[in-house]
Write a sequence for this structure.
């Protein structure tokens, strides 16, 4: 036999949260960008999805502005922002942008072109040296630090000749740098 068709009645409602407004992208490089928007009233947090590159990027943020890391140079991305509030979610807000050209590889990206550091005199102030790991390659596998080993470690090379039995080397600049001191030659570095 056959059965009678089923019918259902339902009512749809609009999105229960306000969307963000004024979404913009600035500080665009080949590898990151800054997302800024005017927060929505009643928002708890925001789901942000970034598509267009080789790997989608997403997460939940609670404030604006927010940095979008891990981008690929010369790529067009679409950022979708959805407000989460106690009563549900908002309609999506989207903004599109294109990343810039890749940064040049640092001169000291390999051991053969390492930069020489000059130790300060005993008890004297340090001798600052500028550098970057942006666009650097990985020439030695990542080492474990605080129980964690990265999947990929961009490295740059420096050298110094010890002038005392103890030297202090520090990194600065808002990144999670790991220092590894080696001896030997570029062909056979010794940990």
């Amino acid at each position: 036999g056959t059965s009678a068709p089923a019918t259902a009645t339902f009512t749809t409602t609009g999105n229960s949260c306000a969307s963000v407004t004024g979404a913009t992208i600035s500080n665009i490089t080949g590898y990151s960008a800054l997302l800024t928007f005017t927060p929505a009233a009643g928002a708890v947090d925001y789901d942000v999805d970034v598509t267009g590159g080789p790997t989608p990027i997403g997460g939940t943020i609670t404030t604006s502005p927010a940095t979008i890391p891990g981008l690929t140079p010369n790529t067009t991305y679409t950022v979708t922002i959805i407000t989460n509030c106690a009563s549900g979610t908002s309609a999506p807000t989207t903004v599109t942008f294109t990343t810039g050209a890749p940064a040049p590889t640092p001169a000291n990206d390999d051991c053969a072109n390492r930069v020489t550091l000059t130790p300060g005199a005993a008890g004297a102030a340090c001798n600052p040296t500028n550098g970057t790991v942006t666009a650097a390659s990985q020439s030695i596998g990542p080492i474990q630090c605080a129980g964690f080993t990265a999947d990929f470690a961009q490295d740059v090379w420096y050298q110094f000749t010890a002038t005392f039995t103890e030297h202090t080397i520090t990194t600065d600049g808002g990144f999670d740098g790991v220092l590894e001191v080696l001896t030997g030659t570029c062909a056979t570095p010794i940990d």
Remarks:
- The CA atoms of residues 125 and 181 lie 21 Å apart.
- The radius of gyration is 25 Å.
- The mean pLDDT is 84.
- DSSP finds no helices and twelve strands in the chain.
